[in-house]
């Protein structure tokens, strides 16, 4: 295997990974996504189901359904990585056009910033508790610095952190679960509220939204796998790691919220108190930081790559220097830390609205990408054309962009958000099924309009297969 880095830092960015640099095993997808999901923000996501009025058992079942459905969607994106060897958002140019892909790209960067900021708030609290520091900015800045270092080193180190987070997370959450059973009557968490369809659908949406927000960058972390890696193996490794890790964390969140503890008021502090005093609390804070570091590095790495993809669409670059890559990572992390410092007071409320709103933006994008790749193009992509606005895919694909906007707009009557509730959501007893409507409607419309697309190549075209330009 040729080195994928020059010195310490990874050198590949938006260009295709050559076969000589492919390495790794699908099991790495399981550990990466398990570790990235078994973390405190997923605990908060699970707790939100109780905030929204769900009964604990039905919340856990609804979250499981959402994790499996949303996880299947994101895992289908992951399976594209070994085949294409490209960052996910570069490959989306095949659907939206080289420049047209910038619209969902900009929204994707905002998503990464939002998740990175919320993760930085919680990790900063844990670091401050570890060192006995009262200044919130201290922990956030320290966490940001660690994130920059790992993201700059890149792909291989991120996977190492994922493996560490898997082991640490299992031990940490296992211990916290024992503590929970020892100090609380867990049976009291169940049966507190009546079952309602609206809250059940909401819990499904919470978990599905959580999983599908990984879709725009999941292939970034499978693109170094050998080309011959079976797609089903990549799919199942990603799905199981992500869904199981998230389900454990979210179920924990459901129970601690239903028991009426102080978790919702002080998420990190509650975990430390539950662990016990002294060394146990310190180790719990280390677990929180380690597992948040995994997903925060995904955000920083993917966010910087998404910004590079956006800029390169208008500059014509196919590669960027290592210095530029590092500068983008530093800029992204600096922005996320700044947001965290100024927004931390309203973390829970902002995060709740943020997760649900993301569904409206990314479900249509995901539907178009998957329908095109698996049903229209049938896994055949002209990779050199992804960098050429005058090539096969053009600068803008108005069919895909129109379907994307349709997929966003069609959700409006079905939305149940903090700022707006659609009329159909009211008729359904406040149930939000907008993401299901968007997934189905966008998929059908795009397939109907794009089938028979003359731009589909007869076979996969790799850079070495493309004719030289005059």
UniProtKB/TrEMBL annotation:
InterPro entries: Pur-cyt_permease, Pur-cyt_permease_Fcy2/21/22. It is found in: Membrane. The keyword Iron does not apply. Residues 1-20 are annotated as: Disordered. GO terms for molecular function: transmembrane transporter activity. Keywords: Membrane, Transmembrane, Transmembrane helix, Transport. One of its GO terms (cellular component) is plasma membrane. The chain crosses the membrane at residues 30-52, 59-80, 100-124, 136-158, 164-183, 195-219, 239-261, 326-348, 354-375, 395-413, 433-450. It is a multi-pass membrane protein. Residues 9-20 have a biased composition (Basic and acidic residues). Belongs to the purine-cytosine permease (2.A.39) family. This is Sulfonate ABC transporter substrate-binding protein. It comes from Mesorhizobium hungaricum.
């Amino acid at each position: 295997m040729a080195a994928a880095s020059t010195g310490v830092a990874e050198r590949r960015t938006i260009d295709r990974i050559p076969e000589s640099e492919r390495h790794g095993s699908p099991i790495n997808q399981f550990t990466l996504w398990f570790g990235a999901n078994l973390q405190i923000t997923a605990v908060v996501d699970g707790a939100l189901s109780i905030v929204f009025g769900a009964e604990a058992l039905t919340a856990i079942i609804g979250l499981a359904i959402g994790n499996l459905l949303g996880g299947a969607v994101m895992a289908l994106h992951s399976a594209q990585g070994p085949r294409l060897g490209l960052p996910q958002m570069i490959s989306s140019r095949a659907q939206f056009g080289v420049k047209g892909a910038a619209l969902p790209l900009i929204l994707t960067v905002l998503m990464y910033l939002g998740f990175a900021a919320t993760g930085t708030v919680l990790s900063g609290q844990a670091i401050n508790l570890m060192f006995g520091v009262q200044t919130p900015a201290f922990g956030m800045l320290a966490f940001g610095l660690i994130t920059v270092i790992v993201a700059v080193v890149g792909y291989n180190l991120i996977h190492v952190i994922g493996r560490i987070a898997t082991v640490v997370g299992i031990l940490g959450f296992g211990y916290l679960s024992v503590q929970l059973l020892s100090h609380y009557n867990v049976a009291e968490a169940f049966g507190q509220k009546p079952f309602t369809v609206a809250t059940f659908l909401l819990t499904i949406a919470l978990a599905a939204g959580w999983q599908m927000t990984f879709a725009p960058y999941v292939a970034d972390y499978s693109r170094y796998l050998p080309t011959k890696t079976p797609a089903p193996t990549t799919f199942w490794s990603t799905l199981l790691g992500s869904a199981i890790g998230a389900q454990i964390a979210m179920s924990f969140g459901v129970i601690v919220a239903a028991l009426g503890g102080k978790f919702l008021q002080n998420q990190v502090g509650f975990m430390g108190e539950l662990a016990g005093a002294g060394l146990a609390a310190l180790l719990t804070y280390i677990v929180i930081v380690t597992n948040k570091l995994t997903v925060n590095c995904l955000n920083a790495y993917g966010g910087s790559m998404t910004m590079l993809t956006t800029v390169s669409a208008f500059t014509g670059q196919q590669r960027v220097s290592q210095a530029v890559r590092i500068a983008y990572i530093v800029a992204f992390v600096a922005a996320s830390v700044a947001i965290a410092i100024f927004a931390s007071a309203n973390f829970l409320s902002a995060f709740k609205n943020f997760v649900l709103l993301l569904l409206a933006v990314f479900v249509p994008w995901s539907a178009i990408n998957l329908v095109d790749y698996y049903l229209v193009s049938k896994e055949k992509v002209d990779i050199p054309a992804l960098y050429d606005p005058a090539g096969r895919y053009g600068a803008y694909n108005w069919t895909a962009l129109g379907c994307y906007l349709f997929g966003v707009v069609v959700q409006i009557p079905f939305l149940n958000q903090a700022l707006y509730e659609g009329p159909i959501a009211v008729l359904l007893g406040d149930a939000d099924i907008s993401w299901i409507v968007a997934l189905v409607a966008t998929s059908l419309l795009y397939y109907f309009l794009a089938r028979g697309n003359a731009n589909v190549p007869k076979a996969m075209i790799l850079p070495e297969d493309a004719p030289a330009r005059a």
